[in-house]
Amino acid sequence: MDSFEVIPTGGALGAEVRGLDLREELGGETVRVLRGAFLDHCVLFFRGQEISQEDLVRFTRYFGKPVPHVRPQPDRPIDEIFVISNVTEDGQPIGALGSEEIPFHSDLSYLPEPGTISLLYALEIPERGGETMWANGYASYDALDPGTKARIDGLSAVHRHPIDALNTPEPTMHPVVRTHPETGRKVIYVSPHLTHHIADMEREGGRALLDELIAHATDARFVWKHRWQVGDLLMWDNRCTMHRRTPFDDRQRRFMWRTQVFGAGTR
Ligand code: SIN
Fold first, then answer.
1. Would you state the torsion angle of the CA atoms of residues 150, 151, 156, 160, taken in this order, to the nearest 10 degrees?
2. What percentage of the chain exceeds 70 in pLDDT?
3. Average pLDDT value for the chain
4. From the CA of 53, how far away is ligand 1's center (Å)?
5. Is the pTM of this model over 0.85?
6. Which residues line ligand 1 (CB under 6 A)?
7. Which domains are present in the chain?
């Protein structure tokens, strides 16, 4: 097995993996340990990587099947790589998501089958801002009082993207409390960015409950923030986390490659 260390952040989730060069193929035992660490920590990051798009797709494959992002992006030499960037060339954005804040969300929850694992590799980062933070959905669920757990058990919520054209014709619903298919643990699965309303509840009561759950699930004790460095590769589990990106000065460049896994398990 390759020699490497998994060092927990000491925060609400996440661990740094030290000692692996992701340009190299990884051995089976290394992948097995990484998969376990990923399920344990929900977010893993690797610093100082100098990888190509092919390396990123190969690494993603250890955890599932990388798929082209659901949003089209022209001129991609490798379909599975999606560019996240505020940079424009000839007046056209070369990537998605600009420089503004992106509120907490789990990726693609506006789809009936949301993305499971996302990976992001930093090639250029701004001097300040553009940090990403993750909230631990297991920890926030576990910390709910029994009365609230009983109140939300069995509820569903409608998820919608703010850009209407990205939504499916039928409303997308997910349980408010989701069970992670691999760990079997329960998670709060609502977000300020993509959860529109709680189904089958009258408007005011539903809104109040959603606000209460979101405030709880994004409380600082459940959140860990990553300050990006060039060469960071970070992967996160959308089945048990949500994430938020802070805004940054649009005159500064932020340029990242992203891959996305749907459906697959890691074990
Ligand atoms: C995202 O919300 O998926 C993007 C995260 C980031 O740009 O840091």
1. -130
2. 98
3. 94
4. 18
5. yes
6. 84, 97, 102, 107, 132, 243, 245
7. 5-90+115-128+226-239+249-262 (3.60.130.10)
